[in-house]
Amino acid sequence: MSITEHSSYKTFGWRSDFDSRALAAEFAEIVNHDRVLHGSEARRRFPGDSSWLTYIHAHHGTPLSCQDVVVTPKSTQEVAAILRLASRLRVPVTPVGGASGVQGAANANCGGILLNLLEMKRVRQVDLISLTCTVEAGVVVKALEEQLNEQGLSFTHYPASAEWASIGGCVAARGSGVLSTKYGNIQDHVLSAEVVLPSGDIVQLPTVPRHGVGPELTQLFVGSEGTLGVITAVRVKLRRLPSRRSFSVFRFASLSQGIEAGRLIMTSGVRPTVMRLYDKEAAVHSLDRAVQAGLDSETMLIMVDGEHASLVDAESAICREFCLAQGGRELRPSIAEAWWANRYVFYRPPYTPQLPQIWCTMDAVADFSHIEALYRNVTQAMREAIDPSWGMTVRTHLSHWFEWGSMIYPRFAIPKGPDDLNGALKLHDEVVRAAALAAIEAGGIINDHHGVGMRLAPYLEQQLGAAGMMLLRQIKGGLDQNQVLCPGKLAMC
Predict the structure, then answer these.
(1) Residue 19: what pLDDT?
(2) Position 208 pLDDT exceeds 60
(3) Which residues is 249 bridged to in the sheet?
């Protein structure tokens, strides 16, 4: 089944006989009327997330995000009242933060209510003893980081979309950041959460993770993409700003050598803050555009940071030993320093793709036993998915490493797709399908940190199995009996 045929693109049969003006009036009883939009203004002001799917539909005048009303709460109590009313009326609700996601998850594709959380932007508490912070869902990552930096602290979650992404969105999508190899993905930052269930009940989850009082409920909502409850606040770990950063760069004759160097580093107990391994295509045509170093082969960038200079130097030296032992040739560290200084340029023009291009990142993850097969199978499947005459490029790097494995980040780009919407979607879907199925066949997981959204929903059951999907749907049904939260997302309805 193609993405465009999947039920996530369709309206299911939730109540749709309401008048948007009358609906807006009902929600204005909960929040001030100036925080409610309806009709065409609601869709114009909130066009959807940052996925190619959203852009191409909007370009053809058939927007994916077709909300009837936008409601902007400022408190958890207002969120609870909104969900109580929506559940009673059986009106779909789609929470949204910074709308920086790239999988279509934040689109109100079944209409109803778009719940804009960006006005929930208080930092409720900074605990300087425990080094934790309680922050509301609408706080933008960059704004939080800047506020913490003034106190010598850091959140250490640096997604590429930091200047747009909200904390709640990062948690709901189980996002990652460029420092994840040392500090972890967002789930490793979150200690606890405040969640509003579809019924309107407010749940304060345990204040610390991995406790001995039953299942870890906080993690149930991490990565749930808004389908199980609305995250209104989270308690996260903080760290002190590093006093030292050490950079190094290595050229490898093959990607296999670089992967083995990375594996040895990660299984040795050393934790570089950043370790990015680019295949030749990505090194020459993507990385080198930002660093201007004349790169001509597989390239690994490493950054080690910390509060103790001697420890940083020791870890950096160990990384160097592993890379040299695998045939790496050391290049000047200024290349990695230039990448660090320019790391966000890849997500702005002229680096970021624009219509009429077709583009997508098919990040997938596997353990070290399967990671090379994952890279080989997925990139080959993508290249062979469509006719070469389309001129598609595939450029891949490995940017998030774990003690048990790594991930691949292959981005495809087609210079110009078909002029008609269905033709463009078909071409896009063919590449996505080939990559997703190849990842599963290679023993990998079809996504590392961008989430499922609308793009990968057709392949979730193949990933989890029939029993896994049944379990997921039973959890959804138990929490959201009227199926009002994000209907159709995560292949649940």
Answers:
(1) 80
(2) yes
(3) 301, 331
Q: Can you tell me the mean pLDDT for 211-218?
A: 90
Read off the pLDDT band of 17 (50, 70, 90): low
Residue 33's identity, in one-letter code, is H
Contact between 236 and 136 under an 8 Å Cβ cutoff? The reply is: no
Instruction: Judge whether 328 and 260 are in contact, CB under 8 Å.
Output: no
Phi, psi of 210 (to 5 degrees): 50, 50
Q: Which two tokens stand for residue 324?
A: 């040299």
Is the CB of residue 230 less than 8 Å from the CB of residue 83?
Answer: yes
Q: How confident is the model at residue 133 (pLDDT cuts 50, 70, 90)?
A: very high
Rounded CA-CA distance 194/187 in Å is: 15
Say which residues have a Cβ less than 8 Å from residue 265's Cβ, sequence separation at least 6: 272, 275, 318, 319, 322, 401
Structural domains in the chain?
3-118+474-491 (3.30.43.10), 123-240 (3.30.465.10), 244-346 (3.30.70.3450), 353-455 (3.30.300.330)
Alpha helices by DSSP H, listed for 150-196, are 167-172, 180-183, 186-189
Q: What's the rounded Cα separation, in Å, for the pair 147 and 161?
A: 17
Angle separating helix axes 255-267 and 309-325, nearest 10 degrees: 140
pLDDT band at 18 (very low <50, low <70, confident <90, very high): low
Cβ atoms of residues 33 and 71 within 8 Å:
no
Reported as a single tens digit per residue, the pLDDT across 425-469 is 999 999 999 999 999 999 999 999 999 999 999 999 999 999 999
DSSP 378-417: HHHHHHHSS-GGG--EEEEEE--B-SSEEEEEEEEEES--
Whole-angstrom Cα distance, residue 225 to residue 168?
Answer: 10
- Decide: 202 and 83 in contact? Cβ < 8 Å: no
- Return the closest-CA partner of residue 27 out of 70, 77, 75, 74: 70
The pLDDT of 164-179, averaged and rounded, is 95
Per-residue pLDDT at 7: 39
- How many Cβ atoms from other residues are within 10 Å of residue 307's Cβ? 12
Q: Are 341 and 415 in contact (CB under 8 A)?
A: no
Residue with tokens 């997925």: 378
Give the pLDDT confidence score for residue 125 in this predicted structure. Answer: 97
Position 3 scores a pLDDT of 45
